[in-house]
Design goal:
By secondary structure, the protein is of the alpha+beta class. The chain contains 4 helices and 5 strands. It has a 5-stranded antiparallel sheet.
Length: 115
């Protein structure tokens, strides 16, 4: 569906994909649509009828997009990357690593060697 048509069909409660140039994708809900067609998201961000944020920060911009399977997969991948990064960072503490069993250490090593 064409973007302009999709934006005109949005209604209260619809979920949309929000892309922020700094942090990537997230899912938000349309909380309000003004008479002029502007959108207010559940986090308070306001977008023009064209889907672009009103008064974006100089260091970041936000757009709303149709929530597709591809975007859902990207969001899930980003969550996995974040979780893996957090776990790997916590293993930077030698005392934590020493507490792991040999079986746990072998599993970690095998996973990392596949990379």
């Amino acid at each position: 569906m064409e973007r302009e048509t999709w934006l005109k069909l949005l209604k209260l409660g619809d979920q949309v994909a929000v892309h922020q140039s700094v942090t990537g994708w997230c899912i938000r809900t349309i909380e309000k649509i003004t008479p002029s067609g502007r959108f207010v998201l559940d986090n308070g961000v306001k977008c023009n009828a064209n889907g672009y944020e009103i008064n974006p920060q100089k260091w970041s911009s936000i757009t709303i997009e149709e929530l597709t399977e591809k975007i859902l997969q990207e969001i899930e991948h980003d969550k996995l990357v974040s979780k893996a990064n957090s776990i790997l960072s916590s293993l930077n503490n030698i005392n934590k690593v020493k507490k792991l069993s040999s079986e746990q250490l072998n599993k970690i090593i095998n996973c990392l060697e596949e990379i």
